[in-house]
Amino acid sequence: MGGGFRKAPSQAGGASLSTASVISVVDDHASVRASMSNFLRSFGYVVHTFGSAEEFLGSACLSDTSCVISDLQMSPMNGLELLANMRMRGYAAPFILVTAFPDESVRAGAMKAGATGFFAKPVAMPQLIACLDTALR
């Protein structure tokens, strides 16, 4: 039921015959969504943005998503709850959490819950791309 795992076109390789991976960015801050979206699109990803977990879960993009990048601290449903909700629904797409309040115990819990990556804001974009590349293989 989860989204397909499609390789994004290579930035240096020009045109690619493969279909671009669909990344869903879920963050309650519009500026974070915009900057993350612009950055990921520059690497050839198709990006959809959502202002809340509920908005994402109610969207038609859920089944097409190759990977989710979500803020941890959102209300009323936070990033960990979104991850659990997706897994409960049978979606196995890789899931990357970002937070302005990194904490080792929260990171450990996120990884135990099935997160593929956990990054502190501001996100080091080269590390995020490396994590995405690994997750989408």
How is this structure best described in words?
By secondary structure, this protein is an alpha/beta fold. The protein has one domain (22-135): Rossmann fold (3-Layer(aba) Sandwich). Helices cover 34% and strands 18% of the residues. It contains five helices and five strands, in the order βαβαβαβαβα. It has a five-stranded parallel beta sheet, with helices on both faces. α3 links the parallel β3 and β4 (95-99). The two termini are 18 Å apart.
Features:
five-stranded parallel β-sheet, globular, 5 helices, 137 residues, Rossmann fold, 34% helix, alpha/beta
Task: Return the domain count.
Answer: 1
> In the CATH scheme, what's the topology name?
Rossmann fold
Content of β-strand: 15-25%
CATH-defined superfamily: Response regulator
Distance between the termini: 18 Å
Outline the fold blueprint:
Blueprint: E1 22-26, H1 30-41, E2 46-50, H2 53-57, E3 67-71, H3 79-88, E4 95-99, H4 104-112, E5 117-120, H5 125-135
Parallel strand pairs: 1-2, 1-3, 3-4, 4-5
Summarize the structure.
The protein has 5 helices and 5 strands. With 137 residues, it is α/β, with parallel strands linked by helices.
